[in-house]
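Provenance

Sequences were taken from public entries as deposited. Structures were produced by running a predictor on each sequence independently, with no templates supplied. The record for Acyl-CoA N-acyltransferase from Ophiobolus disseminans is shown for reference.
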Amino acid sequence: MSDSEYVILQGIPTPQVYHDLRKLVGMTPPPMEAVPKALANSFVCFLVYERRHMTDNTTPGLEQTAVGMGRLLGDGSLFLMLCDVAVHPDHQRRGLGKRIMQSLTDYVDEHAPDAYVSLVAEKAAQKLYPQFGFKDVQPSVGMFRMIRGLRVQDEAAQEDVGRA
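Predicted structure for Acyl-CoA N-acyltransferase:
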């Protein structure tokens, strides 16, 4: 399929679609109970749909699922974080990641032109982001903290001990 066979629309995925897309592309699937609040607090989100299943140019079909997404969160003015850029594996290598990024950066340029937009790049996408003006933060160092991640690691370690 060419990129003209896809439509990118502003909107929020269902919690299940969000969870499933993250999981399919190898991102950590979030706890489902936290997803609705997270999505509701998005600054903006864009979804990719196959044009052939659309009822018109702006309405996905009733049973249609997004095949890609990208999201920004933050204060809407000075600080934003780009996250959740994901394209279903069956639809990768068609320029959809670039189209999502273009939609997100165009939105920021129009609605929050003074924003500092940050991201954490997965290894597979590290060549994508510089095409949209993102630069390495060196000499700064990126860091993160995630209690949920520590709990997951602890649970896995306990399972390994139980098997020994």
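The radius of gyration is 17 Å.
The chain has one domain: 3-136.
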